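Readers of this paper often ask what the protein records in our data store actually look like. Below, we set out a record of this kind in full and without editing:
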Amino acid sequence: MAEVSKSLNIPQIEKLRGAANYHTWRSMATTFLDIMGVWDVVTGKTEKPDGTYATTEASWVRLSQHAKGFILLNIDRGLMPLISTAPDAPAAWAKLEEKFDRKTPTSLHTLLKTIVTLRHSNKREIAAHIENISKKTSLRPVRPVRLTHLTHRTSIAN
């Protein structure tokens, strides 16, 4: 695969393996897709032309294929079926977001499963276990909030 990526000038980054490295991978991928000049196609900022001008549509398709090629070369083989049926780069990117970004029901289910199946090993300290949970969930400690001047007034008109 390295030969293919070199001949097409597609940069290689650490492969997306799953939810564990998705956010790091996404950050690197967006940077390189932007450098390649295809990020606007991936995000939909540059919309697919309606077919009025064949050269414009052909240019968009070429950029989309270049972006999808980057994505395919930089994900684990086990994830390829997830995006192989996507017709273009924006659809492939959307499938990855749906699977791994914590904003969707699918990724929330995956996150919940990860949390529920976490177990504490007696070989490690509890602090390390809590840190592991925090990394997987991106939870931050909650600051106490002081509520002041709470008043509740009700009036009953007779």
The chain has a mean pLDDT of 78. Residues 54-73 form the longest helix (20 residues).
